[in-house]
Automatic annotation (TrEMBL):
GO molecular function list: GTP binding; metal ion binding; ribosome binding
Residues engaged in binding Mg(2+): T206, T226
Protein's name according to its UniProt entry: HflX family GTPase
Cofactor: Mg(2+)
Cellular-component GO terms for this entry: cytoplasm
Lineage of origin: Archaea, Thermoproteota, Candidatus Korarchaeia, Candidatus Korarchaeales, Candidatus Korarchaeaceae
Domain Hflx-type G stretches: 193-361
Superkingdom, taxonomy of origin: Archaea
Residues where GTP binds: 199-206, 224-228, 243-246, 311-314
SUPFAM superfamilies (UniProt xref): P-loop containing nucleoside triphosphate hydrolases
Keywords associated with the record: Coiled coil, GTP-binding, Magnesium, Metal-binding, Nucleotide-binding
């Protein structure tokens, strides 16, 4: 089994809990990729080091742990620059990646359709292009130009090849994006309403989608089983229900940009069914819900177009449910419909559909 050391520079000295949630999420993603976490290293600093993220003394400590534990990779929660990656890899003698790399690795494993694969390849190329450019320039800057290069350094060819591939991928995705947008707009012009199942990964969106549509989409404990959106007509094709990609804490803006095609469904949706895992611990529930709402607002959606489906209600007792519902109302507001549901015993599913239809003004 592959081994990983994880690390974080924590810049909020008052954060005594959230960073543990973030690190736990990172490590669960690594576990899904087949890595065993052999150590977690945290440093509290006012700000990250420009050159190494960590301070010099901490780098010496990490170097010692790498030498003793012999990990395959050192994984930072912090997003790192090309310069930081270059410096860290030379200082530690091991591959260094960040949480964005890990997310892309998970996506790559989960991707099954052409569109997802194109978007992942583009996101990966754009992420690694600055590092390749830096490392290639360092490696080749003193080399003489080849006779056939006409004065062009060897690394220019590598850089131009990546730039060409990025342009090709952008063009393909842009074309597919226009096609998809036209398909969505045609549905809207034909009078259909669009409701999306959205929210944190592993909250149970696909299970609810299957229960409401009769489909049998794959459901897994692994993160990001759903990368490409799936449409299904329900209630006599009056509404298209869409299963969408899941969210994560600190969702990288580059990921939103790279997967803008998938997020078109949310952009054009009339109603967002925000699926939360009501069985989560209270603090985790609040963190995830706030992150869900933040991302949806960044995508142009507001609470008045949302319904909260508190999934896995079969795992929560009555008194706990009342307490959790109060927490949710404190965050989302009392005007957002909140419906406890379960795909295990079926509770709340009919109410969820009825509320959705009422909110869409398709029934009274």
């Amino acid at each position: 089994m592959l081994k990983a050391i994880t690390g974080m520079v924590k810049t909020d000295v008052h954060d005594h809990y959230l960073y543990k949630i973030k690190m736990g999420e990172l490590e669960s993603l690594l576990d899904a990729l087949g890595y065993r976490i052999v150590e977690r290293i945290i440093q509290v600093r006012e700000k990250e080091s420009v050159d190494f993220v960590f301070g010099k003394g901490k780098i010496d400590e990490i170097k010692d742990r790498v030498r003793k534990l012999d990990p395959d990779v050192f994984v930072l929660y912090n997003n790192i620059t090309s310069k930081q990656k270059w410096n860290l890899e030379r200082a530690l003698g091991v591959e260094v990646i960040d949480r964005y790399d890990v997310t892309l690795m998970i996506f790559r494993e989960a991707a099954s359709d052409i569109l997802s694969k194109l978007q992942i390849e583009l996101a990966s190329l754009e992420k690694h292009f600055p590092y390749v450019k830096l490392s290639a320039s360092i490696k080749y800057k003193r080399m003489k130009a080849g006779f056939k290069g006409g004065g062009e350094y060897a690394y220019h060819k590598q850089i131009r090849a990546m730039q060409k591939r990025i342009k090709i991928l952008n063009d393909k995705i842009e074309k597919l994006s226009r096609q998809k947008e036209l398909e969505i707009l045609k549905r809207i012009d034909d009078g259909a309403k669009i409701a999306v199942l959205t929210g944190y990964y592993n909250a149970g969106k696909t299970s609810i989608f299957n229960a409401l549509t009769g489909f049998n989409k794959p459901v897994s404990d692994k993160p990001f089983t759903t990368l490409s959106s799936k449409y299904a007509g329900i209630e006599g094709e009056k509404v298209y229900l869409v299963d969408t990609i899941g969210f994560v804490i600190d969702l990288d803006p580059r990921l939103i940009a790279s997967f803008k095609l998938n997020l078109l469904d949310i952009k054009y949706s009339n109603k967002q069914i925000l699926v939360i895992d009501i069985s989560d611990r209270d603090e985790l529930l609040k963190i995830k819900l706030k992150e869900d709402l933040r991302i949806l607002k960044e995508l142009g959606k507001r609470e008045e177009s949302m319904i909260i489906a508190a999934n896995k209600a079969d795992l929560v007792g009555d008194s706990d449910m009342r307490r959790k519902e109060e927490l949710i109302v404190d965050i989302a507001g009392k005007d957002v419909p909140l419906i406890p549901v379960s795909t295990v015993d079926g509770r709340g599913l009919r109410e969820l559909v009825r509320t959705m239809m009422e909110e869409l003004e398709l029934i009274r």
